Amino acid sequence: MEQKRSRTRRQPNNSGFLVQGSILAVASILSRIIGLLYRGPLTSIIGDLGNDYYSTAFEIYSLLLLISSMSLPLAVSKMVSARVSQGRVRDAYRVFKAALGFAVISGALAGLAVFFFSDFFAELLKTPFCVFALRVLSPTLFIVAVLGVIRGFFQGLGTMMPSAVSQIVEQVINAVVSVAAAYYLFAYGSKIGAVLGDEKEYSAAYGAAGGTLGTGAGAVAGLFFVLFVFVVYKRVLRRKLRRDRGNSRESYGTILKVLLLTVIPVLLSTTLYNLSAIVDQGIFKNVAHLQGYTADEIHVFWGVFGGKYRVLVNVPISIASAVVSASVPAITSSFAKKDMRSVHKKTENAIQYSMVVAFPCAIGLGVLASPVMQLLFHDSSRLAEQMLQVGVISVVFYSLSTLSNGILQGINRMKVPVINAGIALALQAGLLYVLMQVLDMNIFAVIWANTFFAFAMCILNSIGICRAIGFHQEIKKTFVLPALCAGIMGVVVFGVYTLLQMLLKINAVSTCAAILTGAAVYFVLMLLLKGLNEEDLLSFPAGRKLISLGRRLHLL
């Protein structure tokens, strides 16, 4: 017993980064839930046609965001963490200021590019009416660039709280403004369309633009919050700067050079990693057009895929992204100290944590595909249900590949994810074309190609990590037990939902009850089969309460 208590006390030192990751993961989950809740009424306003315009605009926006600034938070957190671990607080602060200047320039250039070349991007993806949403999004690129650097600075200092809270603030404002603006602009676009003779297209296009207006408003709110936190923290920072007696004083030129050398590989890997969405859309819409699908059919396919399916599967994947944000600075710090034992342990903990969450989410979404689509989007179509059922396995692969990308970057193997993403992207594009042209699988070809891309990244990244640090992930506790427990949970969830629907015939009640039952069953099974222990639970949100509950149930 004494040994167990001692081990529990030491836990924060071994995997405290997972506690920070849990904070960010909870915020990501809450943000995604808010996103799901507002996407329902937004879809009701703009329809599948508007969803196509909205999703297409976001694909282009996301790619330009990646190129201009999305790699900055990770690079900043990595550089700040490495310097703080060596006691070089002043140099860490200089990294922040240099990155901020870089973000202002890159964000402004990206915003101008989206605004002035919006027609070109829209025509390239055979979706000309997404141009209104693109132009509304353009200023957001500048705002998010600055916001990302401040978040990366705090993450490098080892605290995820500013990023977590700002995410929630950002999403709440986003939800309110998006729905309100979409409602107003949809009606406005309808009037314009009536005059121009194309009411359906213009109302959907203006409604989609209203939806993207919320993204900018949310980013502004998030930026104001982190600026407030930074101003409050400035007093503490000044004390740390005064205590920094180190001789190292990196010049801004040196910092910018290191920043670029850090950003470019991250940028290339994340761009290639996320370029798959643009490649998917370009190949799908062009091939579908050649195959004789009507414009309305193509809009519906992509509207359901981008506006419903992808929104749902991205919820659990965002947890992996949160773990990446916490694990990269922590792994970088241990790697800089040449503490390979700690690097291995943190890598193992991060992957295990991600899989413990990914498997039940994937199974749950697959089992409750139709009920969830009905609950959130009022969509009972067979198309939406089948898309989610086919694609849920990608949740596991994308979670693992996202995390393994971050791990490779944390151990300074920056080129490896770039090469891997390039290989996977080429294979994915070829597979997508074959599935569409030869097998005529329409939108399901995109889902299978997406899944294959993530699977290929998992394999290639795992080989890269093994070669770099000789790391081999434990299999049984990380993959086998979560998959087994999630499978049993899925059977129980299906039974509970079916029974409650027979008795109550209220989808919302049956779905929520099935989800809660599934979470409880999965928790109990993981403890019974020793898939989780006290040390593992300490890294989870409300970990001590979970341990207390496990003890009361005599499972620990």
Task: Write a brief caption for the model.
With 556 residues, the chain is mainly α. It has helices at residues 2-85, 89-116, 118-124, 131-156, 161-196, 199-243, 252-290, 295-336, 340-367, 369-377, 382-391, 393-410, 415-437, 442-469, 476-503, 507-528, 534-538, 543-552.
Shape: globular
Percentage of residues in strands? under 5%
User: Fraction of residues in helices?
Assistant: over 70%
- Rounded to the nearest angstrom, the radius of gyration is 23 Å
Please provide the count of β strands: 0
Integer average pLDDT: 84
Query: End-to-end distance, in Å?
Result: 12 Å
- Low-pLDDT parts are 1-15
Integer tally of domains: 2
Pairing-aware structural class of the strands and helices?
A: mainly alpha
Q: Total helix count?
A: 18
Largest sheet: none
Please write the string of helix (H) and strand (E) elements. Answer: HHHHHHHHHHHHHHHHHH
